[in-house]
Every structure is written in C-alpha cells, then in structure tokens.
C-alpha cells in the first residue's frame, strides 16, 4: 500500500469516528439546539470544546496507537 493510500484510509477512518463522537459529546454536555437559539456564542464555545475533545480521542485511537 502506498503512503498516499494509507493516509487517505486513516483520514476517512478519522472523519467517520469524528461523526460518531461529536453527537455523543454534545449530548453528554447537553449542547442542544435550544442553547444555539438562546446563546449562540456559548453554543459555539461548547461545540468547539466538544470538537477538540473528539479530535484528541481520534488521535489517540487512530494516529498515536
């Protein structure tokens, strides 16, 4: 397998994992559409925190492992 193909495979797996983790984290931290309607900046802050945490999980599972 070529390096480019391997990187593409890891990238696809990472994106798929992010798609699974993000909704779980948002639910866990109660980041809902209601918050988005009431306080957009807080919603963005919390979603960014969820994204950062999800990225750390993906890196630990797929890249550093």
Distance between the termini: 19 Å
Q: Largest sheet, if any?
A: none
- Unreliable runs, pLDDT <50, ≥5 residues? none
**What is the SS-derived class?**
mainly alpha
Mind telling me the C-alpha Rg?
A: 15 Å
Assign an overall shape: elongated
The strand count comes to 0
Which percent bin holds the helix content?
over 70%
> What order do the helices and strands follow?
HHH
Count of discrete domains: 1
Q: Average pLDDT, to the nearest integer?
A: 95
Q: How large a portion of the residues is in β-strands, by DSSP E?
A: under 5%
Quickly count the helices. Answer: 3
Pfam family, one: TnpV
Protein name: TnpV protein
Any overview of this molecule?
The protein is mainly α. It has one domain. 86% of the residues lie in helices and 0% in strands. The chain is built from three helices and no strands. The protein has helices at 3-28, 33-38, 40-63. Helix 1 crosses helix 3 (40-63). It is elongated. It comes from Bifidobacterium pseudocatenulatum. Pfam families: TnpV. This is TnpV protein.
Summarize the structure.
The protein has about 60 residues and is mostly helical. Helices cover about 85% and strands about 0% of the residues.
Primary descriptors:
single chain, 65 residues, mainly alpha, 3 helices, TnpV, TnpV protein
